[in-house]
Amino acid sequence: MLLWARWAKALTWGATAALFCAVYGLPVAMIVLASVSGQWNGILPSHLTFVHYVNVLHTDSAGQLQVSVMTGVIASVAALVSGTWAALALRRMRRLPRRILDMIFFVPSAVPSVSIGLGLLVAFSRPPVLLNGTATIVFFAHFLLISAFTYGNVSAGLARIAPEYGEVAESLGARPFYALTRVTLPLVAPFLIASFSLSFALSMGELGATLMIYPPGWVTLPVGIFALSDRGAIFDASALTVVLGVVTLIVLMGLSRISTRSMVRR
Questions:
Q1: Interval 119-132: pLDDT, tens
Q2: Which region, left, alpha or beta, applies to residue 232 given φ > 0 means left and ψ of -120 to 50 means alpha?
Q3: Are 189 and 33 within 8 A, CB to CB?
Q4: In the chain, where the domains are located
Q5: Distance between CA atoms of 263 and 22, rounded to whole angstroms?
Q6: β-strands 125-126, 129-130: how paired?
Q7: Distance between CA 48 and CA 37 in Å, rounded?
């Protein structure tokens, strides 16, 4: 009953806003300030400048951004296709086998990403399957790390769809492929877009496994940020972090608009 009072609502919202600013807002603000800092000897930076953005955009960082986007898109598409396929296939299975396979699908998300990278490095460093030193191993690592989230989101979407929709379509003479493409997939389209968005965001920020397996010619943006910070170029690393966040946010906002339109059409 206290939350119905105006003062209680104001207090709750104030505490929530303060917690959000402390956990998320303050670190982001520090990164943004560091990205435009000329010097930082006191509480706040001085000699504000955009030279760090110029530095990162005129070095290898532009290529690293392209590599990150390509890796995120390819790995997310592969995870979306495989996760959707698996969710559709396991939907009609009996409960016990489905739960066992569910657990197997979620194993990569429960294992530290460094372990995934080390496992791939050991498994594919010798013939007959030699992937070490190629971009393929990076795609494979990102796919393993994000596939569980894609499968989980699509499975949750399918669970909200009554099986009667497919049965009605089949009773009207629709073939399985037609019912899948014209009934089931359109109904879960918002979940598919959300799965791709989450997968892409996770891939864009992935560092642990990538740091262990990336070849010299396929450096992602998080690896570049780590390299800059390791050399002490904190301001340049902050500028590159802002670029990474802005690009990821733009892509997610675009996907969110597509998801909203698909829900309106439903």
A1: 888 888 888 888 88
A2: left
A3: no
A4: 1-49, 60-265
A5: 34
A6: antiparallel
A7: 5
Q: Which residues contact 79 (CB under 8 A, 6 or more apart)?
A: 143, 146, 147, 149, 150, 195, 199
Which residue shows structure tokens 């608009």? 257
Identify whether the C-beta of residue 228 lies closer than 8 Å to the C-beta of residue 205: no
Of 18, 51, 48, nearest in space to 33 by CA: 48
Conformation bin of residue 107: beta by default, left when phi > 0, alpha when psi is -120 to 50: alpha
Give long-range contacts, CB 8 A cutoff, 24+ apart: 244-249. Answer: 244/65, 244/68, 244/204, 244/205, 245/28, 247/65, 247/69, 247/204, 248/200, 248/201, 248/204, 248/205
Tell me phi and psi for residue 170, to 5 degrees: -70, -35
Q: Report yes or no on whether pTM surpasses 0.85.
A: no
Q: Which of 29-43, 49-63, 67-81 ranks highest by mean pLDDT?
A: 67-81
The three-state (H, E, C) secondary structure of 129-197, written as one string = EECCCCHHHHHHHHHHHHHHHHHHHHHHHHHCCCCHHHHHHHHCCCCHHHHHHHHHHHHCHHHHHHHHH
Fold for the domain defined by 60-265: MetI-like fold (1.10.3720)
For the chain, how big is the Rg over CA atoms in Å?
A: 23
> Of 138, 106, 102, 155, which Cα lies nearest the Cα of 211?
138
Contacts 24+ apart (CB under 8 A), 132-139: 132/213, 133/215, 134/215, 134/218, 135/71, 135/215, 135/217, 135/218, 137/213, 137/215, 138/71, 138/210, 138/213, 138/214, 138/215, 138/218, 138/220, 139/71, 139/74, 139/75, 139/78
Per-residue pLDDT tens over the stretch 223-250: 999 988 888 888 888 888 998 888 888 8
